[in-house]
Amino acid sequence: MAQELGIPKKQSFHFNIPKKKPKIAYFILVHRFPGQFKRLFKAIYHPENHYLIQIDQEVHINIEKGVKTFLEDYSSVYLLKSENVERGGYSMVQSQINGMKYLLNRCLKWDFFINLSDQDFPLKSQDFILDFLHRNKSKNFMKIVSQVRVRPYTLNCVENHFQEIDVGFSGIPYKRSFMKNVTWYVGGQWMILTRACCEFICHSPEVKKFEDFYRKILIADKSFFQTLLMNTSFKETIINDDKRAVVRIVDGDIKLKPKTLTRADIDFLIQGDNLFARKFDERVDESILNILEEALDTHQITNNSNSIDFNLISTLTIDAKKSDLLDPETIINPSIQLPKPLLNGSK
Fold first, then answer.
1. How far apart are CA 67 and CA 31, in angstroms?
2. pTM for this entry
3. In angstroms, rounded to a whole number, what is the distance separating the alpha carbons of residues 139 and 243?
4. One Pfam annotation, family name (predicted)?
5. What is the C-alpha to C-alpha distance for residues 271 and 274, in angstroms, rounded to an integer?
6. Cα 90 versus chain centre, distance
7. How far apart are CA 227 and CA 225, in angstroms?
8. What is the reported pLDDT for 83?
9. For the chain, what is the mean pLDDT?
10. What is the mean pLDDT of the segment spanning 270-274?
11. Nearest alpha carbon to residue 57 among 31, 37, 84
12. Strand intervals (E) in 2-84
């Protein structure tokens, strides 16, 4: 006689399957701080990521050789041809696009594009950054504000035609008409973009009209990507936060410029939810980099953003009158000491 086994009709099995973390493609511009670049590179290096380095054309040949020698000990590192990059000009935009195309054309496996300079430094470990990106797979991060409503004084940079040359801009600018049916945005040059977003920027026919227009304006590096993405289908994926900690100060004729961070800013840096900070200058204060390096090594940095998942936050329109995405940039007079919560901004 056969024995009836008492097997439940429904059983549930739970397997602890490790989540697949995304891979990052870093694009790093080296200008004039090779020592800081090496410290930055060591702090963000992870064998699963990719690192594309572009050395500014004006860098001395000995510095270039030193950087290349340093990189020989690491895998997944690539060098992009040196170019002359003019701050504020379209050459900065073209440099970013060239970096994206290079990384895409090599058929490398990566999910996010992050651009940095040799004056940046991470505030979180690579494991933390990878976990953050895993929870925000479809989101793109950059600073964005309405150019007409928030920064109307920058519109002359868009409506006037400028010719970029090897050093600066030449000729007398002349006015031209705006692009039709386009809303203008401005922000900063630092970004965290998904691979899909980079593929769109590099290959979509929608992009050409923006490239043609922005090739002849000032501050293209702070407005091209913002205006392009906010006027296309990627608008709903943009989070108005570049995840950079920057303190802006008023300095003479320059309306705003990023403050060189020192050890006096350490509480602001390690207690926030930003992933990176800028700008640093070891000639001014090397100790701040020492402190951050030690904090990363010993996991002392507070990970306040561990619970943030931007996929769970409803997308807000940038044009809304009252929007959490439109925080005005902090302006700090260097002669005034502001409370730490107010020390926020980005470049």
1. 11
2. 0.79
3. 12
4. Branch
5. 9
6. 17
7. 6
8. 79
9. 79
10. 87
11. 84
12. 24-30, 50-55, 77-80
Give the whole-angstrom CA distance, residue 217 versus residue 338. 35
- Interval 283-330: pLDDT, tens: 999 999 999 999 998 765 555 444 445 554 433 344 433 333 333 333
Nearest Cα residue to 116 out of 24, 240, 219, 30: 30
Looking at per-residue confidence, does 240 or 305 come out higher?
A: 240
Q: Which of 128-142, 191-205, 310-324 has the lowest mean pLDDT?
A: 310-324
- For the chain, the structural domain boundaries read 24-342
- Residue 56: closest CA among 21, 91, 88: 91
Contact 27, 92 (CB under 8 A): no
Whole-number Å distance between alpha carbons of 146 and 148: 6
Give the burial class of 270: count Cβ atoms within 10 A of its Cβ; 0-12 exposed, 13-18 middle, 19 or more buried: buried
244, 227, 237, 230: which is closest to 191 by C-alpha?
244
What is the C-alpha to C-alpha distance for residues 210 and 229, in angstroms, rounded to an integer?
A: 10
Q: At the top level of CATH, which class does the domain 24-342 belong to?
A: alpha beta
At residue 104, does pLDDT exceed 70?
yes
Dihedrals φ, ψ of 128, to 5°? Answer: -65, -45
111: helix, coil or strand?
coil
- How many separate helices (H) and strands (E) can be counted in the chain? 10, 14
How far is 70 from 249, CA to CA, in rounded Å? 34
Q: Using CA atoms, how far apart are residues 126 and 87, in angstroms rounded to an integer?
A: 29
